[in-house]
Request: fold
Amino acid sequence: MNVPETTNYLIAGYAVIFTVLGIYIASFFIRQRNLQQDLAALEELEKKPR
Amino acid sequence: MTPKPRLLAVLDTVCIVLFLIAVGLVFFYAPLERSMGQVQRVFYFHVATAWVGMLGFMVAAGVGVVYLRTNHSLWDIVGLAAIEISLVFFFVAIVTGSIWARPAWNTWWTWDTRLTTAAIVELIYAAYWMLRQGIEDAEKRARFGAVYAILACISVPITFASIRLLRTIHPVVVGGGDPNAEGGFSMTPAMRVTFFYSLIVFSILFVDMLWHRIRLGQLAEKVEQLKLKLSA
Reply:
């Protein structure tokens, strides 16, 4: 029995898995950094006398 | 943001190691399936990502109930975190399924029972995400989110059972299925080990990501509260 040549689909499948999950995990770091910057700026504003 | 707990740091490392082992099992331990060829290896992570998707949607429904009973904002943050993670994993499951279907069914997409119900689930939760953005009042948003998550979760068991109860071409690898299914195969012991190991690893990965996403949600809540305080 001949095994069908489907390696390209395998590569495409795992490329999608690693890329999407990689981008999503990277978004955690980016969002965390942005929120920490926002928090620092807001805390600075809070300290200033109004 | 509070410093990262030691347990979370350990869990991160454990997840990376377990994930790399899973990749190793998929590519070097699981045997080649002769009727489909290499693309069959997509199946291990395809099912695992679909499982995480469904798991998160169910968790969101559970914490939705807890939120309605307690009114504590933490449960809203947990529900949102679970749905966000599940949306991503379920999207990956749909796309990898489509990639597998091309050589197996000779089409990228067909309106089969499983594919249709899975697409509906993804759209239902994408709508949850968008509708939440339109509600400004935090308490109203949380209550809406909780009720929506509880009602939306009805679609999850329907999708899970669709290939077991209805006529479909989607294979059921665990627990038998429709004789019309195309692309089904019997798992060898090595395939079974890889399959269940991947399911366990992705479940642990879900817990780890959920913990991180909850911490992010708590930080966002703190920023939002400070903004409100300063604008008052």
Summary: Residues 7-45 of chain A form one domain. Residues 22 and 36 of chain A are 22 Å apart (CA to CA).
